[in-house]
Task: inverse folding
C-alpha cells in the first residue's frame, strides 16, 4: 500500500461516502478506509434520511437505495409520568413522490452508498483502522493503518472518522470533547409484523410515522426521546447531554427502559422482538463548539466537525452536505493545479458558511447555553402543560373560568409572572 | 432490575481476545482521586464496575464504541481509548 492517492477518506459514514463518491466521480484517485467489516457495520443513527442532501449527490438514489418508510406524519409529544400531550402534523402531501424524508436502517443504507462509491471508481478498504496521521511538519501527508506496511500517502486526507475523531485529537488539531458538547443516545430496534405497524400507526404501504418526545422521560436532563417506524421494525431511543448523565447518575439503559414502559409508548412496542441495542455520541455543541475543520493537507466533514443541528434533529444531511462541499473544494483545487494548503482549503469553510449548514448552526448558536441554564423547559413546563390539559379535559362540574384561573395559577406558582415572560423571551431569543 | 447483559446478548461482536482496545491508565487514580466514578454508571454497555475493594474494573467485550468513558473522564484523563483493530469489536446488524 505505498501508492500515492489524490485523496484518502477516513471513514465510511454519510460524510465520508459523500466525499469519496463526489471525488471519485470527478475522476480523482481516491482511497477510502473503513474499520468495520463493511461500510455501515460501525455506524449508528436514529435514523431519518433527508432526501435533499442525498439528491444533490445521487439524484436517482430512490431507484435502488434501501429505504424503509417515507415519513408522512410527525408527532411531537410532551410526556408526564402518566400522560402525553402533543401535536401531530400529517399531510397527504408527504405521500406524493418524490418523498422528502425516509426512515432507513444504517447498516443497509451505508452498504448501498459504499457500493456507489466503489462504482464511481474509489478504492474502498474495510476492516482497517487508521491509527495516526503522517505529518510533514504541519502538513498531513498520509495515514498509518493497522495493516502490515500500512502507510498510505495522498495530497489530502479527509477526516470523516465520526464524533470521536481520535485522529484530529492525536494530531493536536482538536481538544478532547467536553461532556456538555455531546449527547449520549441509546436505542433499540424492535421487530413487528408489517401489518401490525400499519394498524398501530395508521399507515399503509411504505408510509411511516416519526414521534419526537420531551419531558419526564429524560428525568430532568436536557434531551429528547424518539420512536421511528421502519418497514418491519420500530426504532426507539433516548438521548441526553453526557454532562447531565454524569450529574444525574441514571444509567442510559435504565432511562431507556423506563421510557419504554411509559403508558403512551409501551403499547406501540408491545409484542415486538428486540434485536439490537446500540449507543452513540451525538455532537451537539453547536456553532460555538465547531473546531477548526481544515488545515494543511486535511479537511474535516460530518460528525467529526460537530456538524449537527440538535434543535431540528438533523445530522446525516449535514454530514452528506459537508462531505460533498469538501469534495468539491478539493476537486476545484486539483483541477486548478493548486496545492492542498490551509490557505487554499479555507474556501471549504467559506463555502460552508454560505450553505444552510453554517447558517442553521449559527441561527441556534445560543441554544445549547440557553437549554443548559434553563432546565424548566425540560422539567417544569412538561408538567404544567400536562396538568393544564388534564384540568381542561376532565369534565367534573367545575366551570371553565375557574379551571382557567386554576391553570394560570399553576403556571405563575411554578415560574412567577415575571418568570413566564422571561422564559418566553429566552425561547424567542433562542429561535430568533 | 434491568440486566444490561440481556440487551448486549442481542448484539453481534467479534471479540479481539486478549487485546482490549480501552484501558484504565492508572487504577489508583480511579480508586483514590475520582470521587464519582461516572464511568461506572454512564457507560451504556455497563463495561465499568466497582469491585468490593472500591476499585474500578473494566471488561470491554460488550463495548459499543461510543466514546462515553473517554469523554466523561475529562478531568482525570485516565482512559486510554483506541478503536479496536480493523474488523473487530461491535458489528452492528442494523445500526
Result:
Amino acid at each position: 500500500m505505498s501508492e500515492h492517492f489524490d485523496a484518502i477518506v477516513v471513514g465510511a459514514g454519510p460524510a465520508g461516502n459523500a466525499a469519496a463518491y463526489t471525488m471519485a466521480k470527478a475522476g480523482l484517485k481516491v482511497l477510502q478506509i473503513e474499520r468495520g467489516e463493511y461500510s455501515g457495520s460501525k455506524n449508528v443513527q436514529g435514523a431519518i434520511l433527508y432526501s435533499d442532501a442525498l439528491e444533490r449527490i445521487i439524484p436517482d438514489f430512490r431507484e435502488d437505495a434501501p429505504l424503509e418508510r417515507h415519513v408522512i406524519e410527525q408527532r411531537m409529544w410532551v410526556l408526564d409520568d402518566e400522560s402525553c400531550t402533543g401535536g401531530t402534523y400529517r399531510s397527504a402531501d408527504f405521500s406524493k413522490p418524490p418523498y422528502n424524508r425516509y426512515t432507513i436502517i444504517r447498516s443497509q443504507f451505508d452498504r448501498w452508498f459504499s457500493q456507489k462509491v466503489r462504482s464511481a471508481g474509489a478504492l474502498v478498504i474495510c476492516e482497517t483502522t487508521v491509527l495516526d496521521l503522517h505529518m510533514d511538519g504541519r502538513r498531513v501527508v498520509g495515514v498509518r493503518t493497522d495493516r502490515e506496511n500500512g502507510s498510505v500517502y495522498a495530497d489530502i486526507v479527509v477526516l470523516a472518522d465520526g464524533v470521536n475523531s481520535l485522529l484530529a485529537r492525536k494530531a493536536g488539531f482538536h481538544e478532547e470533547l467536553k461532556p456538555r458538547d455531546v449527547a449520549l443516545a441509546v436505542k433499540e430496534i424492535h421487530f413487528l409484523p408489517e401489518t401490525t405497524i400499519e394498524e398501530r400507526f395508521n399507515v399503509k404501504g411504505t408510509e411511516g410515522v416519526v414521534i419526537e418526545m420531551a419531558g419526564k422521560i429524560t428525568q430532568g436532563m436536557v434531551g429528547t426521546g424518539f420512536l421511528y417506524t421502519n418497514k418491519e421494525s420500530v426504532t426507539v431511543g433516548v438521548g441526553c447531554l453526557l454532562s447531565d448523565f454524569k450529574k444525574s447518575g441514571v444509567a442510559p439503559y435504565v432511562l431507556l427502559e423506563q421510557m419504554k414502559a411509559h403508558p403512551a409508548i409501551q403499547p406501540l412496542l408491545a409484542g415486538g422482538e428486540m434485536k439490537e441495542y446500540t449507543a452513540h455520541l451525538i455532537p451537539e455543541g453547536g456553532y460555538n463548539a465547531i473546531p477548526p475543520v481544515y488545515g494543511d493537507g486535511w479537511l474535516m466533514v460530518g460528525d467529526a466537525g460537530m456538524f449537527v443541528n440538535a434543535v431540528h434533529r438533523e445530522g446525516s444531511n449535514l454530514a452528506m452536505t459537508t462531505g460533498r462541499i469538501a469534495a468539491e473544494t478539493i476537486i476545484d483545487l486539483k483541477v486548478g493545479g493548486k496545492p492542498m494548503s490551509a490557505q487554499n482549503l479555507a474556501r471549504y469553510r467559506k463555502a460552508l458558511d454560505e450553505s444552510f449548514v453554517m447558517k442553521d448552526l449559527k441561527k441556534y448558536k445560543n441554544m445549547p447555553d440557553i437549554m443548559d441554564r434553563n432546565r424548566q423547559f425540560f422539567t417544569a413546563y412538561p408538567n404544567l402543560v400536562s396538568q393544564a390539559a388534564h384540568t381542561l379535559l376532565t369534565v367534573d362540574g367545575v366551570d371553565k373560568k375557574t379551571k382557567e384561573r386554576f391553570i394560570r395559577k399553576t403556571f405563575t406558582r411554578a415560574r412567577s409572572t415575571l418568570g413566564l415572560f422571561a422564559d418566553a423571551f429566552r425561547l424567542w431569543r433562542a429561535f430568533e | 432490575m434491568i440486566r444490561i447483559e440481556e440487551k448486549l446478548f442481542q448484539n453481534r461482536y467479534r471479540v479481539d481476545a486478549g487485546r482490549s482496545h480501552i484501558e484504565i491508565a492508572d487504577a489508583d487514580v480511579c480508586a483514590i482521586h475520582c470521587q464519582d466514578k461516572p464511568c461506572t454508571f454512564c457507560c451504556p454497555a455497563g463495561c465499568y464496575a466497582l469491585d468490593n475493594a472500591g476499585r474500578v474494573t473494566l471488561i470491554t467485550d460488550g463495548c459499543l464504541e461510543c466514546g462515553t468513558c473517554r469523554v466523561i473522564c475529562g478531568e482525570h484523563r485516565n482512559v486510554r481509548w483506541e478503536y479496536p483493530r480493523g474488523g473487530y469489536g461491535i458489528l452492528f446488524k442494523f445500526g
User: Anything to note?
Assistant: Chain A touches chain B through 54 residues (CB under 8 Å).
